[in-house]
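Entry:
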Amino acid sequence: MKIGFIGLGIMGESMSENIVKKHDDKVYVSDLNRAQVEKLAAVGAVACENNVEVAKNADVIITMVPKSEHSKAVYEEILPCLDETKLCIDMSTIDPDYSVMISQFVKETGAEFIDAPVVKSKPAAISGTLGIYVGGSEEAFEKAKPILAYMGNNIIRMGENGMGLVMKICHNTLVAQIQNGVNETLALAQKCGISVDDFATAISYGGGQNFYLDGQAQNIKNRNWTTAFSLENMHKDLGICQRLSQSKNFPMPGMENAKAVYDKGIENGIGKEDFRATYKIVEAR
């Protein structure tokens, strides 16, 4: 079984490298950034000139692109290459309704399609320990699962097409709200004279203990904003949640509060920094 991977950004680069290292057949890759293609070719991937070349050669086509319109454009581009022999796995984080639309026109060719967005960030992409939420048929999920296992170790089917993305957006929105709570209480504690180390230790003793603070306290203390997951990507996800909640007529004031912090981060030009850089926005109030 030959695999194709389109989109070799911060996450896609490491995800595809894991496939190259673990899969016993050819892996075809493409990206708008030629340097990324050559980097994967150096570890054993087959460099392609474009997405169509990937789709023609691969039995399984994986996409990992930034936005809804990018995912739609890729699948429209490769549509003539699709038939009942192909399985498409879109691992991009995009609007669920866009993904459902893409699944419909892809499945009209006879190909199978699942959405399979990931959680965790660059270190987990490197180690192959991502969490993966899947939307699609049970049959397509079972076909995809061994391939997804090259990239992640916690894989769960959430329902039909689009439901993996609904879960991803709910997850990231929860992370943003937890993060905002950490930012506000840590900033207050510091203004009162409590150190980051003492704050993190004290929180770990009680019900406020959380994965985000455990993993990010030292980076915040050291003012390390090196990007593992960008502020602009989380801002995009909160925008998706905002649209999703509006479509369901379900107000989410906590989400709106967190998104306002991210809006300010984008306005201040720190979108390329890690999403924990929102601490600077809260701290500066």
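The chain has a mean pLDDT of 98.
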